Amino acid sequence: MTTDSLHDIIADRARALRLVFEDEVAEAIVRLSAGYPHFTHLLALKSAENAIRTGRRRIERSDLPLAMSTAVEDAEGSLRTTYNASVRAQTEVYRKVLTTAASLDDLEFTISQLRHKFPKDFDPTGPLRKLVSNDGSTILRRAAKGAYRFSDPRMRSYIRIIHLMVDPIT
């Protein structure tokens, strides 16, 4: 979905419940959702629940970490299982490649886009080969010659959320 549509989801639900999302929180939710409305709904819901539980009508930045943690716990088991299996062998290297791929805004990406995001002394080609298949049996699939995408489009959102939980924006 478009970012405008995702913002509309948040605004419509907030209005119906007479809640207000800080602009920064709504932006973060849309960014983390990566175009996938399931995560927009889930993060907005969990943020709103936290605010309501503490007697507030305004959803603030401080509500987002708990919402992210709850969203990861609630995420479909297949996302968690696929991600954990993908990073198991070379945890840090594979995690960096997947986190970088998830940070890109396009559904498909190229190796040059990945290389551009890494220091000159790191080449993501090797780890990428281990994470890609043609048939979608791995976390990434070859979309076309030189182009890749996540096999499950929800994975971008999932990785964005868990990455921020480990390395929050300050």
How does this structure look, described?
The protein has 170 residues and is α/β, with parallel strands linked by helices. It has two domains: 3-74, Helicase, Ruva Protein, domain 3; 78-166, Arc Repressor Mutant, subunit A (Orthogonal Bundle). The protein is built from nine helices and six strands. It is elongated, with a radius of gyration of 17 Å. The two termini are 28 Å apart. The mean pLDDT is 88.
Secondary-structure map with pairings?
Layout: H1 3-16, E1 20-21, H2 23-33, H3 37-53, E2 58-59, H4 64-74, H5 77-87, H6 91-103, E3 109-110, H7 111-117, H8 125-131, E4 132-133, E5 140-144, E6 147-150, H9 154-166
Parallel strand pairs: 1-2, 4-5
Antiparallel strand pairs: 3-6, 5-6
Helix pairs in contact: 1-2, 1-3, 2-3, 3-4, 4-9, 6-9
- Overall body shape: elongated
Please, how many helices? 9
Q: Quick one: how many beta strands?
A: 6
Q: Rg from C-alpha positions?
A: 17 Å
**Spans where pLDDT lies below 50 across 5 or more residues:** none
Quaternary structure state of the chains depicted? single chain
CATH class category label of the largest domain: Mainly Alpha
Protein structure class: alpha/beta
End-to-end C-alpha gap: 28 Å
Strand content: 5-15%
Helical percent range? 55-70%
What is the CATH architecture descriptor of the largest domain? Orthogonal Bundle
Helix-strand sequence: HEHHEHHHEHHEEEH
Strand order in space, largest sheet: 3-6-5-4
CATH topology of the largest domain: Arc Repressor Mutant, subunit A
Rounded mean pLDDT is 88
* Biggest sheet layout: 4 strands, mixed
Number of domains: 2
